[in-house]
């Protein structure tokens, strides 16, 4: 055994499943970085719960990808033995935690999308994906609740918290478009009823986001430029550092069981 | 847990130690009655408990750091989820314990401020670094194992809120030690390199873990009154011996060697260990352990970085109350 | 500078339908919404509950332990309120 990258045969369904698994793992990992560092003990508990939900989703999705691929890969090989170019997560989710405002805004943008997305995916013709969607939807719904309550408090709290929340929204906004884009590989799955088209989810997403942001006395940017690339492995520089930490044991001790 | 608000009505007279009350109090303790927050208690009982419970709470919170050091590097997703859940549990335990301490009349903020100012202690063990993944296994197996030895008798402590918090903590911690032992077992059944990693971790943690039970009985300054008040039910040395006796067969099962070549089993079946380096313990408590400064810096940073968030939530709550009052007035 | 105090809340959980809410612990939160969320995140991580109440700790009015005598002892002598006070021959069976 070596610690070299695995090869993945990215059929549309494997690729689709890995993309969602990577989303959950990378965001779950980011949230786990908060452990022991949150603004109060109560929030340390909350961020860890959200992280654990996402890690759970990642593990189920990786296991399913392994089963569909059928080449002897497993959840850990997918997580620990693919490099930056092989990761397929949204750019938004690999963005560093920054301050609490940035973490909450990232969570709020994604969870609001994920909740709509998983709810729609409950009707997938693929029973495994439909079951994962049903579980993930309930988790995401709570993540939306938790993050939006904080958006409101940060936005409508003090001058400083308002400023920090607004900066976070402005800086993360360009990463939200990627959630709604579809490539050819996914188009076929959508046509077959296995995946859902995320594009029609944007209006209801925007409605929820705008409502909360408005209540928080914050504003959404006018800038419509949207950054893309995560789905095809063109990431920000941040992901490499995240992976070098995440994968350090598996890379240093090839083939060992832990 | 009860509330600090309930205690705020304590009049001066309640703190005046009078012999009759003290005798009555001791009689209740001797009859195995539980003391509850609003009951009269000798000021020294209140002070001792506040110190002990808050130190225990600080230990849980500082204790998140050495293990938290490996969450982002856990070698499998299964281990990562278990470790995050475990460290999160420790946060919860700190939270329950602060609440128990608060029933005695100090706020969590006061207690935390005292810790951040370096005026309050926490368990010496968390001032040692976690250098390899085997340290995570060893902490679960030995540090949690030692903590459980300490905590199980505390479930019967005379102070109700502390005893109830400990029951909850012990229930939740039951997976922690197993989690650590499983990591050790996997290492010991793994490659030579993994086994060496496990042995190295045991070598580094063994003595500091024995120190966790506190100074030897003849030197312990708090033991007498704590025993009289049934806060403490076993002495430091008794618990330490119990721990060693339970651990030796586990180490043998793992195929690891306890770093105490002179250790031997006596006729009563107890494992007699060599002298503990109490000078090292003293130094670590005095702030000179390998990680004391890092731990305090990490806690202070979290506290300071979070200040604006706590202020924002307070400000929002105040605004909301104001708006509600305005609406009611209209 | 001393850290300002964030209000304390008491948490009550119904572990399953048919049972009353039971006091499980406390937490700190700046308002009721955050208190409820925190209660969920802290006290139901192992599937302990189906319903949560949070109550500001300072909203609880408690009896004074020093009045225990007048509050509770008078009830102790009313033994005729308990079924064991009454003699019913064994052959009558369960009553």
From TrEMBL, chain A:
It comes from the Bacteria. InterPro entries: Aromatic_CoA_ox/epox, Ferritin-like, Ferritin-like_SF, PaaA_PaaC, PaaC. One of its GO terms (biological process) is phenylacetate catabolic process. GO terms for cellular component: cytosol. Pfam families: PaaA_PaaC (PF05138). NCBIfam families: PA_CoA_Oxy3. This is Phenylacetate-CoA oxygenase subunit PaaC. It comes from Bradyrhizobium archetypum. The lineage of its organism: Bacteria, Pseudomonadati, Pseudomonadota, Alphaproteobacteria, Hyphomicrobiales.
TrEMBL record, chain B:
Keywords: Oxidoreductase. InterPro entries: Aromatic_CoA_ox/epox, Ferritin-like, Ferritin-like_SF, PaaA, PaaA_PaaC. One of its GO terms (cellular component) is cytosol. Pfam families: PaaA_PaaC (PF05138). One of its GO terms (biological process) is phenylacetate catabolic process. One of its GO terms (molecular function) is phenylacetyl-CoA 1,2-epoxidase activity. Its EC number is 1.14.13.149. PANTHER family: 1,2-PHENYLACETYL-COA EPOXIDASE, SUBUNIT A (PTHR30458:SF2), PHENYLACETIC ACID DEGRADATION PROTEIN PAA (PTHR30458). This is 1,2-phenylacetyl-CoA epoxidase subunit A. It comes from Bradyrhizobium archetypum. The gene is paaA.
From TrEMBL, chain C:
Gene3D superfamilies: Phenylacetic acid degradation B. This is 1,2-phenylacetyl-CoA epoxidase subunit B. Its EC number is 1.14.13.149. It comes from the Bacteria. NCBIfam families: PA_CoA_Oxy2. The gene is paaB. It is an enzyme of class 1 (oxidoreductase). Pfam families: PaaB. Keywords: Oxidoreductase. It comes from Bradyrhizobium australiense.
């Amino acid at each position: 055994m070596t610690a070299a990258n695995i090869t993945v045969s990215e059929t549309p369904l494997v690729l689709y499943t890995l993309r969602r698994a990577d989303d959950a793992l990378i965001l779950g990992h980011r949230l786990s970085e908060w452990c022991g560092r949150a603004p109060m003990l109560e929030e340390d508990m909350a961020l860890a719960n959200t992280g654990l939900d996402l890690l759970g989703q990642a593990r189920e999705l990786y296991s399913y990808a392994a089963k569909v691929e059928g080449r002897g890969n497993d959840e850990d090989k997918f997580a620990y033995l693919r490099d930056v170019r092989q990761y397929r997560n949204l750019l938004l989710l690999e963005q560093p935690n920054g301050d609490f405002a940035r973490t909450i805004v990232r969570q709020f943008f994604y969870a609001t999308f994920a909740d709509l997305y998983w709810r729609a995916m409950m009707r997938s013709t693929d029973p495994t994906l439909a079951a994962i969607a049903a579980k993930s939807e309930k988790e995401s719904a709570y993540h939306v609740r938790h993050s939006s309550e904080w958006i409101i408090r940060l936005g409508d709290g003090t001058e400083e918290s308002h400023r920090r929340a607004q900066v976070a929204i402005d800086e993360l906004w360009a990463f939200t478009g990627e959630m709604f884009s579809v490539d050819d590989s996914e188009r076929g799955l959508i046509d077959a009823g296995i995946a859902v088209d995320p594009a029609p989810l944007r209006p209801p997403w925007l409605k929820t986001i705008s409502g909360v942001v408005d209540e928080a006395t914050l504003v959404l940017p006018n800038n419509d430029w949207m950054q893309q690339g995560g789905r095809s492995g063109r990431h920000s520089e941040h992901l490499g550092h995240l992976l070098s930490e995440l994968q350090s044991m598996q890379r240093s001790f090839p083939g060992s069981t832990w | 847990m009860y509330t600090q608000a309930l205690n705020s009505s304590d009049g001066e007279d309640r703190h005046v130690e009078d012999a009759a009350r003290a005798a009555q109090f001791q009689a209740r303790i001797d009859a195995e009655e539980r003391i509850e927050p609003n009951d009269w208690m000798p000021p020294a009982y209140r002070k001792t408990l506040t110190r002990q419970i808050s130190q225990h709470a600080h230990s849980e919170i500082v204790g998140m750091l050495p293990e938290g050091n490996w969450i982002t590097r856990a070698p499998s997703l299964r281990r990562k989820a278990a470790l995050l859940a475990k460290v999160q549990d420790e946060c919860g335990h700190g939270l329950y314990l602060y609440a128990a301490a608060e029933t005695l009349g100090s706020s969590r903020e006061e207690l935390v401020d005292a810790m951040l100012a370096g005026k309050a202690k926490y368990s010496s063990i968390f001032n040692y670094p976690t250098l390899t993944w085997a340290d995570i296994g060893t902490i679960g197996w030995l540090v949690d194992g030692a903590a459980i030895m300490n905590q199980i008798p505390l479930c019967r402590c005379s102070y109700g809120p502390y005893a109830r918090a400990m029951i909850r903590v012990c229930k939740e911690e039951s997976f922690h030690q197993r989690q650590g032992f499983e990591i050790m077992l996997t290492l010991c059944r793994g490659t030579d390199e993994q086994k060496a990693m496990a042995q190295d971790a045991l070598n580094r943690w063994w003595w500091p873990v024995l120190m966790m039970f506190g100074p030897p009985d003849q030197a312990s300054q708090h033991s007498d009154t704590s025993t009289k008040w049934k806060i403490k039910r076993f002495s430091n040395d008794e618990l330490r011996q119990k721990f060693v006796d339970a651990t030796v067969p586990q180490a043998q099962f793992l195929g690891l060697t306890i770093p105490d070549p002179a250790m031997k089993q006596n006729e009563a079946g107890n494992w007699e260990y060599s002298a503990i380096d109490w000078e090292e313990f003293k130094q670590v408590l005095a702030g000179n352990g390998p990680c004391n400064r890092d731990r305090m810096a990490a806690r202070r940073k979290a506290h300071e970085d979070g200040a604006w968030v706590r202020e924002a939530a307070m400000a929002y709550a105040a605004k909301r109350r104001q708006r509600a009052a305005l609406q009611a007035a209209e | 500078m001393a850290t300002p105090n964030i209000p304390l809340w008491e948490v009550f959980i119904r572990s399953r339908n048919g049972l009353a809410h039971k006091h499980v612990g406390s937490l700190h939160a700046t308002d009721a919404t955050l208190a409820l969320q925190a209660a969920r995140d802290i006290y139901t991580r192992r599937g302990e509950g189906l319903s949560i109440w949070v109550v500001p700790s300072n909203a609880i009015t408690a009896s004074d332990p020093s009045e225990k005598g007048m509050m509770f002892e008078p009830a102790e002598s009313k033994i005729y309120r308990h079924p064991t006070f009454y003699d019913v021959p064994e052959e009558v069976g369960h009553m």
